[in-house]
Amino acid sequence: MASRDIVQYDTGLSRLLSVLAKVFLAAYVVWTILPFVIMIGSSMKDLLQAFTLPEVGDWAGTSALVHFTPTFKHYVALFTEESFGTYLSNSLLASVGSALLAVILGTSCAYSMSRYEFRGKKDLLFWIISTRMAPVVAVIVPLYAIFRNFGLVGTIPGLILAYTTFNLPFAIWMLKGFFDNVPYAVEEAAQCDGATRFQATLMILPLVAPGIGAFLVLCILFAWNDFLFATIIGSGAAKTLPAATKELVQPQNVQWGKIMAAGVVTTAPMMLLGLLIRRYLVAGLTMGAVKE
Amino acid sequence: MLIEAKTSFVTVDEDHDYAARTIDYEPENRNTAPRRRFHLYLMLPAIITLAAITIYPFFWLIYMSLHKIVIGGADRWVGLKNYAGLLTDEKNIQGWLMLAKYSGLCLSFEILVGVLLAVILNNSRFEKVLVTLVLMPMMMSPVVAGLLWYYLYNGTFGWYHWLFQSLGLLGETSILADYGSALWGVVIVDIWQWTPLITLIALAGLKRVPRDQVEAHMVDGAGPIRNFFAISLPNIYPFLLIGILLRFMDNFRFIDHILAMTGGGPGNSTRILPVYLFDVSFQFFKLGRGAAIAFTLLAVTIILGMILVRVFENPAQKKALANQKD
Amino acid sequence: MVALKIENVWKYYGDTVAVRDLNLECDDGEFVCMLGPSGCGKSSTMRMLAGLEHISSGDILLGDRRINDLAPKDRDIAMVFENYALYPHKTVAENIGNPLRLAKVAKHEIRKRVQEAADLLEIGHLLDRKPMELSGGQKQRVAIGRVIVRQPQIYLFDEPIAHLDAKLRARMRSELKHLQQHLGVTTVYVTHDQLEALSMADRIAVMHEGVLQQFGTPAEIYSNPVNAWVAGFVGEPAMNLIACSCAQEGNAVNLMHDGFKITLDDRLAKAALSSGERDLRLGVRPENVRLTADPDDGMIAGTVFSRQLLGSDMLVDVLSGGDHIRVRTDPKSPFEADEKCYVSFDFDHAHLFSAETGISIV
Question: Which parts of the chain are coiled coil (chain A) (predicted)?
Fold first, then answer.
């Protein structure tokens, strides 16, 4: 909003500061982007070419970062030599499945948490939020033991359930905040219009639909990017992209070309999703404590 | 005409502002049976699911921490031996210290750089585009980020290794191969990935700095630097507090990039507690011992979580966060 | 015919009593205002009528049906909410048509009736807009449209125009009144604004602290308030309520005040004597006080404290014996601040209230 800009006057100091700020900004952007450039570049380079670095101190040699003959053989290899097609679909099934489960259960729970007062509500909410914060390494051992008893280890449903441990509390907590912002009078008006209590609830769902959509996407993102559950609970049979990418690192043979390509395949969809819900990102990553 | 003498009567308070109206009812504060049933049906599926996948494992964890777990055999009750062992387990203590050092390093850089970046980005010309650009690393799977940086650090063909060498910062040895520098190697990755979060949070705070405060300060004759310390910083402090707590807890939660890069080595130089816990459970399969470590880690996280929620719920904090919203 | 009957209704929130033993009857087609300050129980009563709150004890009858245990949708009511409570994601037409859609009325019929309602409210050209694109007044019309699209047994209005600006409010008062007469549906209207109640209602129920103070036509409420509270709450500028003590001297009955002594006329004197109360409050509306520059028998001396031009009238605040007496007078009134002046009361329109209980003596 231009009208809200604070008037700035030129002084020597402010000019110096603004130059320093521009330099810092440029450096930071390079620092952020460079790894991506190298990842994408290396994924499209022949291994020999990728492993060739300029001499130490030869700054002109950095042009090799962008000057190369692109090849898609690593990408092709992912889907022919390795079964990344399967891993991709595993990732999709597990993350979308768990996101849907979390958001469907979470929406109904969050609605009541928002509308209904009862004793111990605060404690219940704290329990819900604390399950979300628990370190994965700490809960994975008993979870593994239990899932093995139910034959869930190495299956997509097992993975979906495992992801639900962090996605469900997230969905409940975030959506409760969303419902809190919908005036109760709208539901009352609906009831006076002739709706049943349940119809009135359904009537306000479109109001929170953008939020539900955004948190669905965030749940997908969290699940998609997970590594520990995917390795331990997914264990071989239900391998997702991050787990499969890590497995390309073998003691004798680190297949860097494929790893970089796999990195791109794993990261690109999440980038797009992240851009899609850009508006809700801060709220989502701070558990609703900070809103943009 | 219906006029009755009234029993209850209060004289007119002429100063009372009858137009200042409050809601004289609370919605749904009467828990009648149908209402209770309606909400119970809505809440129970989620609560039961969550309980099944969190409380049940939690009790399993306690059980395991009190037993010697023999895979394929009968578990043996050992009481608190697993816990007692932790006190003398040098790697465990080392792990906690490492975790503290790792978190401290990550957080101080992330806050310093993150806030600086936020201040520069705030109201800059291409703010929207730049913010979007800068937050890209957050979308990346931490394990992929770890692998990517592992590649960048590589002693023979890593571009960043070449960069460090060219800048004269490093010799032949890769940053991850040296005891002294390996921790820095993993810290840098965390900084690369998560500084944007602090930036976003600080930026949200900066957007709510009351304009009149800045203007009053300018009229009083303060320059941009004084302005930052006197006005911006106090205003974004409540936001930063949340950022710090969240990042702190995430440092407990995410070890993916460390597993991808060093697996705790060289030696124990990057073996922060969660990594050690991973090793105990999944390398050495000492599940009882692992459960004991997990329990202590969980306890610390829950305490941190309580602090976080306390901060969330603090009225002053809430007010600060809500300041100038909309 | 009685359309709505509220019998011995109580409402508790925990230990707090919101409504205390309320009895009220509305006739068919009547426009009843429930008037009172915030927290007086009027909103709670309305929400009990709508079925949004449970009735703690007592009965509510709509026509001859006891509706205590019916859900809002089964009560045959329609309600306008204070903050409009429109569905933000639906268009104006969908908002207005919502009750008909829920009642499973045929599509073309809905369209026809929505159009009629919208035309009546002069929002026919806004049907495709979303509530976000409307002004406050337009939103309010949509909320009213949602109500009049049906012909329920009773309309409930919960402070429907409280958030509009003063000009629009005045216009809506007249329109709502016209609309209600035109549609002929029994209406209960909650407001804290006495002007709204006086100008629109057939009968007003004045409530205070959960208790119904008085139920009568606007004229009755205005000219015969049952107690000092109603007298002070209804009317703007407010009625002068002057604390005095009553004393008999020979044949005359006098009201003694720090600043003055006045002799009552026969009507007031009789009532004062028969009440046996010593401490009284004299109630006189500003328009029933006369202001002159020349003293005469029985006049009260004072000084002008301030003068406010209200447009068609002038409100002069006279200070006498430490009390302020508000006088409504001619806008060309020559009195300036700090000027000496004299006031006299029109006893035909004066009231006496017991200082202790506040109940009207005459």
Answer: none
